[in-house]
Design brief:
By secondary structure, the chain is mainly alpha-helical. It is about 70% helix and about 5% strand. It starts with a helix and ends with a helix.
Length: about 230
Amino acid sequence: MRKLTLTLSAAALALGVGGAGIALADHHGGAKADTNGDGVVSLEEARAKGAERFARMDANSDGVLNAEDRAAKRAQRFAEADTNNDGELSQAEMTAAREARDARRAERRAERQANRFARLDTDNSGGVSEAEMAAAKEARGERRRCGDGMRGRKGGNRMMRMLRQADTNGDQAVSRAEFDAAIEARFARADTDNSGTITAEEREAAREARRAERSEQRQQRRSQIERNGSN
């Protein structure tokens, strides 16, 4: 089980799973996948975005996402930090590596903040009104009630379940074919009108469907716990 968890964790970020789905059903993922800026995500765009993510995570370029990629990533990070190539990290090199990581995190944080502001500013006025703030607060409350805002172990468990589903041959790794199949299956579920594209409305509907499904699953678990407790 430990090996399975490590193996599938290596694929988690590449698949972009969890609360958001595979970079085509969530607001930000959908926006990034919409490379031509026409407001919809085509299957070709979803595949292209998936290919980019797969390539980033397939550190050893062997065509599968597994535990070996984790080791390759560690070796790659060490080599990048070992700037004089002497096989060891000096204090200065470790400090420089940490500062570089901090800079990347700050950049990603700034991007997330910009995205959050864009979500709040629904009328694209360049500012956030009291009504927009209230609407955002209500939406956050709904997500919490549905469990969409939960992180940590439960979110990780959802990722593991989805990755196990992607690993259709049970070899504890996600191949490119399995990865693509997972993207195409999720795309098909979100493309409710079978138009070959996913609109913003379909992305929102997909989010709502996932929230409802998770809420139902939690209710089923509670009911099972209550039944077990009464026996």
